[in-house]
Amino acid sequence: MTALTLLKVERIKLFSTRSPWWCMGAAVFITVGFTALLAATIRPGDLGDLTPATTQFSYNFGFLIMMVMAILAITTEYRFGTIRATFLAVPNRVDALLAKTAVVALLAGLVGEAAGVGAWALSKAIRPEAPLALDNAQDYRVVVGVGLVYMVAAVVAVSIGLLIRHSAGAITALLIWVLVAENLLPAIPRVGDTIQKWLPFTVGNNFLYAGQQVGQDNDATPTNMPFGAWGSLLYFAVVALALLALAVGLAKRRDA
């Protein structure tokens, strides 16, 4: 099969169930909804705190939902045995798995863009007097860059799904990694803060909030990160691709 055919097949397979639609809707609705609630209830005297960076405070909700969707995209194939048919139709497992990863990552990126831009636009519509204009590169990055973070995170999620191949186990491992491990490491004396600065999701978060005051005030990312904004995104992407290479390499050797 050609690359375009593989991508089309994976798109059809992904949308053959309702779960991707529910995940996409929930990711956008929850992210935009929480931000709209903040904009609607903020006190007039605090409108100066409602900035482009503030409108993205809830992006992690949709971020986690889309990673769960990415895991299910691969683990359900193993659960129902359809991965065997995929590998019979496409003997080169690498091509099939990369096509699936590309489709899932692109979808996650589009959802991230819709959530990020939607949260900012609705906040601006609700509070037009707030300082929500996109005046510089940092403002554009924290709003438009959400889609890039979603995209790279989806690659990580697919990789975890490939490695574990069980929906509940993969989702549990992901949530422990993102919500527990990366947030609790600073509690380790001496080395905790240093290690946290090199963890992929913490570094990916720095891509959005580097140079933004909200990140410092709300502890969105540690201070003195090793990379700047775009360096953080590159590091996040390299880690994701390395994890994907490991997962695909193991998938070639393991029974479907």
Fold and architecture overview:
The structure is a single chain. The chain is mainly alpha-helical. It has one domain (3-253). 74% of the residues lie in helices and 0% in strands. The protein is built from 12 helices and no strands. The chain has helices at residues 3-14, 19-41, 59-80, 82-89, 93-126, 137-144, 146-164, 167-184, 192-196, 200-209, 213-217, 229-253. Helix 2 runs parallel beside helix 5 (93-126), helix 3 (59-80) packs antiparallel against helix 8 (167-184) and helix 7 crosses helix 8 (167-184). The chain is globular. Mean pLDDT is 90; it is low at 214-219.
Number of helices: 12
As residue ranges, the low-confidence spans are 214-219
Strand content: under 5%
**Termini distance?**
20 Å
Order of helices and strands: HHHHHHHHHHHH
Residue share in helix: over 70%
The count of strands amounts to 0
Shape: globular
Alpha-beta classification = mainly alpha
The biggest sheet amounts to: none
Overall structural domain count: 1
Radius of gyration: 19 Å
Average pLDDT: 90
Organism: Pseudofrankia asymbiotica
Keywords: Membrane, Transmembrane, Transmembrane helix
Protein name: ABC transporter permease
Transmembrane segments: 21-42, 57-76, 97-122, 142-164, 171-188, 227-251
